Amino acid sequence: MSLDTAPARLDTPAAAPYGRRWAALAIIAVSQLMVVLDATITNIALPHAQADLGIAQSNAQWVLTAYTLTFGGLLLLGGRIADYWGRKRTFVTGVIGFAIASALGGLAQNGATLFAARGLQGVFGALLAPAALALLTVLFTDARERAKAFGVYGAIAAGGAALGLVLGGVLTEYVDWRWCLLVNIPVALIALPFTLKLLPESRAHGDTRYDVPGAILVTLGLVSLVYGFTKAAEDGWTSGVTLTFIGVAAALLAAFVLVEARSSHPLLPLRVLTDRNRGGAYLSSLLIGAGFIGSTLFLTYYFQNILGYSPVKAGLATLPMSAGVFASAGIASALLPKAGARVLMSAGGLIAASGMLLLSRIGVDTGYASHVLPGLLLLGFGLGFLFVPLGNVALVGVDPHDAGAASAVVNASQQVGGSLGVALLNTVAISAGTAYLEKNPPMDALGVAEGTVHGFQVGFAWAAALLAVGAVVVMVFIRAGREQLKGGAGAVHIG
Questions:
Q1: Between vectors from CA 274 to CA 271 and to CA 277, what angle results, nearest 5°?
Q2: Residues ≥6 apart with Cβ < 8 Å to 140
Q3: What's the pTM?
């Protein structure tokens, strides 16, 4: 079946909605879940992959960062490709490529191959994710229907990361860590024929040239920034290598802004960012991604290395976070058209921050029910309130020509935030743990564990601060009312 199969055309705001939009939502949701899961599904498998492939502890985080970095770094280009080449065609290419990259990673025989495969997953995820969100934007034009659609998408964005920890634990313990990657192949094979049949094609019209210099600058800038943060964990924040990479990143990203301001066909039109509501949504998404994704690694090591949980038990221990997400996502979807985004997102950020702060109270011998469970429930509940309105606000009033680019920024801000969060919080935790052990020289394994957990405590506290700042950003910048949320991104050509 041709990738250009287009069962419908929507040329004006008054056009009838696409008849199979809910079936299309199901396909988009399943495919998006595959991408979101892979941000965390390898977390619990990481100790086993390290042992199997001989990956050094200092390089282990690249199993996570290689994915989030390429994903976040290329999302802007992926959004423009979706706009210009066709959102359905880009979505299908992303699904196929993601499955192939997953196969390469699942069959990897050394660390370098696994890192490369994870990076390739990020490349194709950068095609799939913005195309998915842009398709939702053009398929759902009614305010209430759009709120429900974004509720599903938001629940997947927040809950999928938590579910990835559970699924990763089950696959690692009962099958093999490699299936944390190989599982994407049957999902893609099932989703692909339905994707070809149910999704309509849509694309932007007018100037559709690509901004290659912008794509190179922003990608290299983000890579340099994350690598600089990573080197800080090894060499310190004041080392020449750390400062050099962060400085180069600042220069490249500044050059990117200048190129975008002067380009006639920018990768990221600055008009997408300068809107108060959208800019606030993107900045809060960056902070949320840094705080949430950056802290998930601590839970993995705390459960398995400190508490001695099996992979399955470690995965199941995170399940209350997913329960909180899905519970609040349903509530947020119902309240969004009535209460607006600012109230929900502000409350969500503060609730999530309080949950993360509770996690900073964990200790070597504290109980799961007393110290971990309350924090996970609050964290998940807050994230649901954050992510459901986020996608909607991030696309308020955006020109149809820029739908893919604006969608990409939503995903990019979260993934780049996650990459920076992993590097930053890991650096903070290692530094705090090292300082603790220097002041309190360990006499036995228990003393070492106490130093490690102290690092986790500090890392969770920093993550809570990032989430709280994200809530403040929402309060200050987001002013979109219910009428603006109804407007969405406008109608675009489908066909």
A1: 115
A2: 17, 21, 25, 146, 149, 150, 488
A3: 0.77
